[in-house]
């Protein structure tokens, strides 16, 4: 029996999923170092959802569609790379993909989508997520919600390490942007071709990512 | 994907853990200095708030800088070596792939506390390091690493007279807490102790190559024969 999509989504969105999620701050660490305060974090979350996270969610949805139809992944990867101008962010994404695929190769070793992505050279995280969704039967909208929710929770969890906070406050931020996550999912759920992926960067986040990559004092990998 | 359930000719993975400041990086530098001429080595460090340890080792000049990789742990040094070892496994496998065939990969934990030990899924064998200047009673207090790591190193023994610690007494306490598992009283200035350490490591490498090395978990605060159950509460005191 196939597990329910709800349960699969819980599994994949759980911070306890062993994909080295504890090493990530979704760009919050260099932002805080540059003066971003706790009061700015909700705006930071929304800014990401409208820009870099929209790219990631869009690529994940298109990768899933390509994998389900047996279409090539190269144009999807190219669309992602073209919309991710920061080399540091591309490296981070590929590292996260590696961690995710290490797990996916164990959970769904025979899934053609997972095999196909494992056979490509240095895939991005959204393409790996697309493969996981294809392998376990997760729908496009659920996949997009997963990408948005995971990004928000990554920032919120890192905020507890970087900024002094009552955890109920950061959980409130997550709760309050859930409609934004849903709006993101609605925007990208029906995307089918790489060209349709939103081309929405956020230069300040990209610049912070580049600064962080050469910083000598880092709590988080990125 | 590597399958950890079948034997492979991969490098021996040696973990070095113990509280902050006990000399983990120096011990790794020492091993590299002693063995880099005869063995192919790689190092993975787990720093808590900096790549200080990786930079220290690179600047020590004991190993090609690219053979020393740092893993950031997001302030979760314990998680990175025990619960979710993904980032460390990736770093180890990348080193092994870039410099195949490696003989030994040394993995340094982020200095944490007395309860942090490596998952046997990450390392084949592990060393727990204590600083003699941390106090003669630390070995007696015990904890999974002190009691059940494959090797306990009581480090910086040359400092014993300056900090009022009886070296032999501390080693005897440690040996008693460890039910006979090996203890090395190490000082960089004591050549005999350095040879004792490298001899132990080379013996582990031989066991690994012979397929006779089965990684053992020092464990969380499991009940054991050498302390009363209520003592285990003390294991939770963070260094």
Can you give a write-up of this model?
By secondary structure, chain A is mainly alpha-helical. In chain A, 66% of the residues lie in helices and 0% in strands. In chain A, helix 4 runs antiparallel to helix 5 and helix 4 (52-69) packs across helix 8. Chain A is globular and about 45 Å long. Chain B has 239 residues and is α/β, with parallel strands linked by helices. Chain B has one domain (12-209): P-loop containing nucleotide triphosphate hydrolases (Rossmann fold). Chain B contains nine helices and seven strands, in the order βαβαβααββααβααβα. Chain B has helices spanning 24-35, 52-59, 77-82, 86-98, 138-141, 144-148, 160-163, 167-177, 191-209, and strands at 12-17, 41-47, 68-72, 104-108, 125-131, 151-155, 183-185. Classes of the chains: A mainly alpha (222), B alpha/beta (239). The A-B interface holds A 16, 18-25, 95, 98-99, 101-103, 105-106, 109, 118, 158, 161, 216-221 and B 1, 48-51, 55, 71-76, 79-80, 83-87, 89-90.
Termini gap of chain A: 38 Å
Question: Per CATH, what is the topology of chain B?
Answer: Rossmann fold
Characterize the biggest β-sheet of chain A. Answer: none
Distance between the termini of chain B: 37 Å
The low-pLDDT segments of chain A are: none
From the spread of the alpha carbons, the general shape of chain B counts as globular
What is the CA-atom radius of gyration of chain B, in angstroms? 17 Å
CATH arch. level architecture of chain B? 3-Layer(aba) Sandwich
Name of the top-level CATH class of chain B: Alpha Beta
Element order, helices and strands of chain B?
Answer: EHEHEHHEEHHEHHEH
Return the CATH class of chain A: Mainly Alpha
Structural class assignment of chain B? alpha/beta
- Mean pLDDT over the residues of chain B: 88
Helix content of chain A: 55-70%
Round the mean pLDDT of chain A to the nearest integer and report it.
Answer: 97
Count of DSSP H/I helices of chain B: 9
| Sheet of most strands of chain B | 7 strands, parallel
Number of strands of chain A: 0
Could you say what the CATH topology of chain A is called? Urease accessory protein UreF
* Total discrete domains of chain B: 1
N-to-C series of helices and strands of chain A = HHHHHHHHHHHH
